[in-house]
């Protein structure tokens, strides 16, 4: 049998290899093409087809490279190296979904392929051999888990809060995560720069594990944080991927970056821990409440679905979405676990103060020391206990950092000389020392006024320790029948309930025995599995396309877009619906009053419940900056022909006609004509501060819309 590797064919291969070695990629590719045109594309020439793809890829001829790799795959779909090279190609094409699939396929075929493993880990994912892959679509959808909050928090703290524990365990679980067609990648995006940066899972695990160590010092943590930041790599989320913010979603400077990702077809899901800043503002700084109101408004308008940490918070968020946002976004509770991460190593506790405490009877309270946590009630109770029992009263131990509006209490206990007498306060201790204090306490107390969950209640029960907690908000949901409850506003009622297990040790022992025998904690592994599976289930139910990414706005309402508008509506207990998420092209971030367009041409788009082809009236409140100008104006195209309106210094509502497009979308293009000077170094054109719309042929709808605009008619004109 004559093989196609002699004579001219052999010479072509030799020449192609020489050109490849010289990095003359395009020339080498042409030689491989010549060879394959003679020898054919079959099992015998498979490796040369792959080399052709490699040379075309390195020459920047990406489409031709993909054709070559596809031809090679039809011949042999069990080559780890082929899928490695396909991964490299898709990476160059910034197709993260396809490159992730190819690299995982390469690693599945050969777990010793360290290049594939390295690429998986470099993209931020955890390399798992033989991860399940879909047979048909050669893409991996990704849950991009935003860990920015954890990294920022770690810069300033040597112990974790409840929110950080959630993120930490969601990351640690990635070593065991498998879901057909899905992966999870931690990210720390630069939202303002439209850059999504993956954080290596291993770097995050290394940082998280520091918190389990007695050597958890600030300098070591900072080095680990820096390593995580320095190791980030840019990634390109695909249509249908999910961005999940499981931490403090309100720390983002604004949601414009998330909005732009949504407009590219991503799915957005925040994990809401509570609405206390809105529901219980007296326990939060005013500035923090205002920021939360604004960020909650923006986040919810962009959300495809929302998760919460308890059924109580889920119910609260549903009311907010329905009554405040006039929407029906799905809300699902993924209830937090009651498991505290146990350390496997035996540590020697060197903290002399802790060693002193555990040699005495003591009651433990774990929480940030701030006004909402109600430590004042415990001080009052212990003053009464000591008045009755003297030194026979157990010690009281606080574990937590000093928080907000606590100066008066702190000054009081210092002036009274309580600290290190019968009251011990531990700030920023490692988790292993906190675990030690849990193990040897008599019981725990948690008299918080309000909580989204109340993780220390569950932690106490995990250690078999009885807990006395408040009977408000979510806390009974966490503790169930294993916890005794007090009214956090009534010291006199709380006193006998807290006193009983101190003076009646048989009662305490029976209570503790019941917990050991009957309490079954929800594990972190169960929570993480449920969390990711629910995201996948919700994401699979969503039609991910450009149309579905547009925000829904209700008709016949005055809709504004400034920070102050949100706060005013919140203060007046009115619905908060904004046009902020409808800014799709060339708009600056929203200001107190609305927003400026950043170019002459700007676009607005939003979803309605109207049918394609219907006509609507759109009211836009527009104006320009104050300067001498020769009649600048704006051309508006809403799909029903161009319409013009003057731009003056005075905010004026103009009525335009638009036509509903596919999917119920209204898409409006604006063009500013005339002279627009730069203001403070920025090019600003159209000022947009108000909006409304209604059906074109519905008189009652028009009247309702005009009535919605009447409150501003005194200060603004309404013109056709």
From TrEMBL:
SUPFAM superfamilies: TPR-like, UDP-Glycosyltransferase/glycogen phosphorylase
MF terms (GO), sorted A to Z: glycosyltransferase activity
Keyword Thylakoid: no
Residues annotated as domain Glycosyl transferase family: 353-511
Top-rank lineage group of the source organism: Bacteria
InterPro entries in alphabetical order: Glyco_trans_1, TPR-like_helical_dom_sf, TPR_rpt
Keyword Transferase: yes
Alphabetical list of PANTHER family matching this protein: GLYCOSYLTRANSFERASE WBBK-RELATED, MANNOSYLTRANSFERASE A
Protein name in UniProt: Glycosyltransferase
Species for this entry: Komagataeibacter swingsii
